[in-house]
Amino acid sequence: MVGLGPGDECLMSPHAREAIHLADVVVGYTGYIKLIAPDLLEGKDVLSTGMMAEVERCRRAVDEAVAGRNVAMVCSGDPGIYAMAGLVMELLETHDFFSDICFEVIPGIPAFAAAAALLGAPLMHDFASVSLSDLLTPWDKIEKRIRCAADADFVIAIYNPRSKKRAGHLIDAINIIKLFRRGSTPVGIVNRAYREGQKVQLVTLDTVNEQDVDMQTVLIIGNSSTREVAGKMLTPRGYAGKYDI
Amino acid sequence: MVGLGPGDECLMSPHAREAIHLADVVVGYTGYIKLIAPDLLEGKDVLSTGMMAEVERCRRAVDEAVAGRNVAMVCSGDPGIYAMAGLVMELLETHDFFSDICFEVIPGIPAFAAAAALLGAPLMHDFASVSLSDLLTPWDKIEKRIRCAADADFVIAIYNPRSKKRAGHLIDAINIIKLFRRGSTPVGIVNRAYREGQKVQLVTLDTVNEQDVDMQTVLIIGNSSTREVAGKMLTPRGYAGKYDI
């Protein structure tokens, strides 16, 4: 399981690059395969599939590995954060393949850390990450997580804020957070971090516009002390109260 | 602000490497400077300081930048997660230096993502990250965050689980989480991920031993569906309930 990082090759680790270089087969969502330099894929079997074929994609990767081939299954960001490392482990478990192959996860820079870097320093204090996708998780569980994260003053990263099937979920989430935080709380909206078409916006809970987000957007919602500084987002850790800075 | 990643050079991004290469001055905690290959530091001013001189270290970095030098301030993991990006922004704000310099954060693979990769796939669902350090945060706020994260069934990453001054905080945190989760919930304990002396342990809420952790340890506490599979930690995302895998 290979984490490609946010997208730009300059943020892909040498370890990830080496794993792809050594692989016989590279498996991944079509959009992620495109993030890899073509020369690195030369001479390899490349199995790419569209967005909705996640189970099929992982099954193919497992089948190839069990057949004795060296497989790099690539994910953008980190393979262990809302990606495919878990599903591959479930397949290995279900079919009792763990003793037949060597399974390794190569971490990558997660999408929310990339978004945070482009925004400034919004994650400097405790944070929670919530996906708004209710394909595999009941919405009331998602709502409870948002409510608890807001109540405990976590900085909140939001993944999968919108899809064609699920209009309104982001606004529902924002409204829950506004029960606990002022409307002027900074919100960072990052589309396509470190990829072509990158867009970074700093708005507030009061001015979030659902039209600005799609399924590739990550939002970062400040905690009660997050503020805008020089057009960037800052969540102070507390040094200024304790030390003379 | 340069994120070095967990430690091993093979997980440091080319962008981070390039930023250090281009710098006149490299500033960082002594332990982080040691993670950088000596040849990359050749001919540069290296300003390293011990653990407790965070404000002084950031002030020196800012002073050098304002004097017109190209500064790489290095952090292990990601500079925006429990690291120095925020304090540097506070200094730039306090002294009104934002218009004088160009401030950039280069993200890195965070410590908890590195720990998760070594454990298997524990972060596959929504997660929260909490630091147990009460140097800058009141303990009752930390307790509330742990309680809310446990109640909402977040996977929980714990940073700074122990220090000489603060015995007992980890056990206090575990006891709060046990109010919401069974004692057999898997807990991953990772020391020095991807560094010399790396140690990865899989225990449970009932068997966490405070002697196994220090300030460099990251713990990952499973949610209600996390389980041990082939000696690894897996938080299933929910595919098995919805699809035939």
UniProtKB/TrEMBL annotation, chains A, B:
<dbReference type="InterPro" id="IPR051810">
    <property type="entry name" value="Precorrin_MeTrfase"/>
</dbReference>
<dbReference type="Pfam" id="PF00590">
    <property type="entry name" value="TP_methylase"/>
</dbReference>
<dbReference type="InterPro" id="IPR006363">
    <property type="entry name" value="Cbl_synth_CobJ/CibH_dom"/>
</dbReference>
<dbReference type="InterPro" id="IPR014777">
    <property type="entry name" value="4pyrrole_Mease_sub1"/>
</dbReference>
<dbReference type="InterPro" id="IPR000878">
    <property type="entry name" value="4pyrrol_Mease"/>
</dbReference>
<keyword id="KW-0949">S-adenosyl-L-methionine</keyword>
<keyword id="KW-0808">Transferase</keyword>
<dbReference type="GO" id="GO:0032259">
    <property type="term" value="P:methylation"/>
</dbReference>
<dbReference type="GO" id="GO:0009236">
    <property type="term" value="P:cobalamin biosynthetic process"/>
</dbReference>
<dbReference type="InterPro" id="IPR014776">
    <property type="entry name" value="4pyrrole_Mease_sub2"/>
</dbReference>
<protein>
    <submittedName>
        <fullName>Precorrin-3B C17-methyltransferase</fullName>
    </submittedName>
</protein>
<comment type="pathway">
    <text>Cofactor biosynthesis; adenosylcobalamin biosynthesis.</text>
</comment>
<dbReference type="InterPro" id="IPR035996">
    <property type="entry name" value="4pyrrol_Methylase_sf"/>
</dbReference>
<keyword id="KW-0489">Methyltransferase</keyword>
<dbReference type="GO" id="GO:0008168">
    <property type="term" value="F:methyltransferase activity"/>
</dbReference>
<keyword id="KW-0169">Cobalamin biosynthesis</keyword>
<feature type="domain" description="Tetrapyrrole methylase">
    <location>
        <begin position="1"/>
        <end position="207"/>
    </location>
</feature>
